[in-house]
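User: Watch each token:
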Amino acid sequence: MAESIVARQQGDDFQARLFWLHATLLLDDASPVRRVFFETGPRAFDDVVVDYDPKGAPQDHTGKPVLRDHLQCKWHVRPGQFGYEDFVNPDFTKGTSVSILKRAHDAQLAHAPNGDGARFQFVTNWDATDPLRKLILNQHNTLDIPGLFKGGPRSEMGKFRAQWADHLGIDEDQLRLLVRTLGINLRIRSGADIREHLNERFARLGMKTIPANEAGFSYDDTIKKLHAQGRKEFDRESFRDMVRSENLLADRKDPPSFTIGVKSFIHAIDSLEARTDESLNLVPNFEGRYLRDERSWNQTLYPELKEFVLSHAREHDSLRLVLDAHVSLAFAIGSILDVKSGKSIQIEQRTGGRRFWSRDDFPPEPDWPTIDCDAETLGDGPERAIAIGLTHDIGQDVRNFVSSNLPGVGSFVAAKLSRTASQSSVKCGAHAALLAESLVDQLRKMGRSPKTHLFVSAPNGFTFLLGQFHKAIGPSIVYEFDFDGQRTCTYSEGLNVG
């Protein structure tokens, strides 16, 4: 089969799965989704369109409500790159005589003339090149507007702005409104990953699941048939009628526990609100991944976080946690729901496929990597710093940071796995629990410190479980790393957990 045909089929399947990912939420009474469209909307931003109820609409990266999401997919079989110049080139999207930037501008004028209320997301598995790449904020897939509008006409960003503005025949104020609504999503998952996610959602919402051992995915073909029939727009009633008529409903089972979520950043594809029964949105407290200057981890965020978690823990003995959140918050939630809370807790983990971890999800395996602590003396200070490198070896970077910035630290501990750290090092919830317990046991043997500085490179599931042992560790400060490289490119102080 020609590669062009394979690419088209895979692109169609990926687009179909994005449709189901959003449309299934029409069966969820708690979801703000009220209508979903397939290839219906502004040209070049019509692959999937999602309408939200204003009363429960999700928020954009500045905290303003989003009433409409427009997704445009560009799928490729082979890896590749694109730059800002491609957005003004009609050949980039093939088969159109108008650039994708012009299409985005037309859509923005029609649906978000003031620069808010709608998002236009370009979703691709290609990577962007500089200077476009350095402007993409991975936390919410939008562009760094202050960065784009920095510098004069002859600067790199000045040439960027000029090309886009001249192509559209607009000034920089109008360009700023467009850019504010534009998203570039480079972190799409594979079709197989979305299939796994969809099966979980189908099961939760009472639709038929597709066994993993089946090569085909019948929902891909269903959307093609619906499209051929001209059935491309669905509200709650028409979608429910459709899944009944297509025999897609299964016997609904009640979820095993109550699902709560906390987000401090926005996930690339699916919203946290859609995956939870109740959620806490802390995103307005941040600019990207960085806490706003007037906010405080402990005085602003922690009281709200603690009240939210405890209010649901009082009502439910079995909880599922979904965290699109900073490492500080994962540790803090663990400290709130500590080992003596008496609750049955599962935590969503995306590493190695999206699933829920618990302390007893798998029996222990003898070949699971173990954790070892190497301690050294840095000075005479009474405090202790711990670098926990489960997904990345951060020992040397943390040691350098501590030596330069934390004079009160006298003891440094590097906690590393018995094998090379990687994204798949921690196998499951049971493995994470064993690692956390082993680490705490080794720290106990080293003696207690009046203050511990924690630097963690690990799945949030592990960090949550470690937080459950916070009393054994003692008063701790959890540090955040500047992943986007927009500010310090190193660590900064996060939550203090007593």
Remarks:
- The first helix runs from residue 3 to 23.
- The mean pLDDT is 88.
- The longest strand covers residues 409-417.
- Residues 93 and 100 are 7 Å apart (CA to CA).
